[in-house]
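JOB MANIFEST
job_type = single_chain_structure
chain_count = 1
residues = 505
[input]
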Amino acid sequence: MTQRATSVSAILVALAMLLGRMTGLLRILGLATVLGVTYANDLAILVISVPDILNAMLVGGALGVVLIPEMHRRNEEVSEQSASQLIVQTFFAIAVVTGVLAFLLVMGGTWFTQLLASGFTPAQINEAGKLISIVLIAFPVSAVTAVTSAVLQGHHKPVIPAYGNLFFNLVLIVVIFLWVTPGQIEILAWAVVVASLFRLLTQLICCYFVSDFKGAFKSFFRLSSLNRQLMVKYFQALTAIGLVVTFPVVSRSFASMYEGGISLFEYAQKLVELPRGLIGAVISMVIFPRLSRIFATGDLTTGARMVSQIAGLILLISIPAGIAIYVSAEPVVSLLFQRGQFSALDVANTAKLLQISILSMPALFLSILTMNVFYARHETIIPFKISCVSLACLILLSLGLREFLGISGIMLAFVLASWLHFLGLAVSLHVKLKVSIIQGIDLKHYSALVFLTFSGISISTMIVNIVSDHVHLFICSVGLGGLCFGAVLLILKNHLPRFNGKLSL
């Protein structure tokens, strides 16, 4: 795949993901308008998120990072038929396994609901459990969608999977604005099932046209393509990615101790997830398949150069954007959410959490890149170990900080755990695989970036305390963000040769 084709794919995927994330934000805005910051909205958020949480934890990301490199390897070293057999056998194996898991979760509905919302009362857990039993139907559907998505990405057709969230969200938005009320959440659960089926159908049609499945069903029942080595790598990657996905789920479970806590946490996180989802989609759908192919050919220099360039771009985007959002948090939340059942107090509480959450943005972006580099090098055990340690730190920090700072402490724990996770990955990548996140930048340059970030946050805090008018805060945020962008670009251009020329992927 040429650099030009990769760049075009990146733009199309970014556009598709932007539309998906914007409709996801519109979905949240709809819930805020109709249900506000209430238990009913906490319930609605749980109902919508359960299938995709389970898919991301137990199937999705891990399946892609293992299946795509293996597809490439078999196409190069064995045959196209072998790659097709792998796809078909994986699809049906995932369908059966996740179907059984969904059934077991329905049987243990009370226990499962307590894990997701530990702060709910027994009556609330019983009500939530009934709705979660409905949306668990969508879990196997979302799981096999991860297979079709990996197939399309492996064939360098990432645009259709990127539009999957757009299709999913459009169905839910229609239901939310037309039928959802505090007493009618069940219809939302069935809408999740329908939206998941629609998303899968669009990808199945595309897979039929881009893949040749001739001979794919040969030796189907022997599952000969799913060898032991592949399964070991899958479960290692599964655990590592699943644990990372668990971070916000664990934090949200702690937040459920406060009335409307899940809603507040979700609103703040959604504004961070919007840019994170765009960056993550481009890396996972466009960059990762290319990195996988480059490392498979043994061209470590080109692979390391690409990693360095992407990391520089991430810093160039995330640091200025984070500082700008910190300044304008309250105006942004007010503009987006303050209508219907969403009050001025809800705006203030959400903005406070957003200002904490935004501090995790560079770490979240870089963690996605770093983990994908490990997986492109067929290394799965190191991310698994680091994710385990990071999750343990998140739980301990949440237990400690909530006693002093309440729900703000839970969000701060999430931020600290995110940075610990990234730093552990970055150090291990350099020590074990001899790949630096950004080549050509030494300790003093990293120190300059850290100093710039903390200086920006300090200035932002002073601006927020002095300026109260929302329009003036917007102007200040744009100006300060622009200054930070220039400063980061100057550091990168002066000390990273790759940024002196044209930036191209």
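[summary]
Residues 261-296 form the longest helix (36 residues).
DSSP finds 20 helices and no strands in the chain.
exit_status = 0
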